[in-house]
Amino acid sequence: MAHTIRPTQVEVRFDASDIIVSKTDLKGRITYANRTFCAISGYDEAEVIGQPHAMIRHPDMPRAVFRLLWDAILEGREIFAYVKNMTRTGDHYWVFAHVTPSRDAERRVCGFHSNRRVPKREALAAVTPLYRELSSIEAAHRNAKEGLAASSARLRQLIADKGQTYDEFVFSL
User: Fold this and answer.
1) What b/e string do you get for 114-124 counting C-beta neighbours within 10 Å, with b at 16 or more?
2) What is the pLDDT of residue 3?
3) Structure pTM?
4) Which stretches of 59-106 are DSSP H helices?
């Protein structure tokens, strides 16, 4: 999948009864994608298996959100997040993602499982300008690592200013 997909800014919506499901290995490579994942993303199952989950990452998504997500699941915690994904054609779809670690028989984390549902529109109205701000912070730095550190700090400060944990924040939207 070495081609560049350009965002169209066209939103694709899916039915509230649909659940997008995928599983990945510890490196984030897709090991399972359900029919809904394939139908909405526009990829066939054979095209996504073994590919990095980031193949559907929309460039509008701030890296700070994914840093938060990866930090949580690598620590063995579940996390919820609003995520803007990109289809094979460059269209996008918003999801409310629930990502959990998968464990083997000895309770070691052996991969990750994500269920994504239709997000609340009012939550998207709140996260869209926040994500835009975080992305702007990241873009303002020549060094990607410094940009990520700055946007992550801004996200933590915003949540602290509200007197909430991240989980409280995301469920308050």
Assistant:
1) bebbbbeeebb
2) 64
3) 0.93
4) 63-74
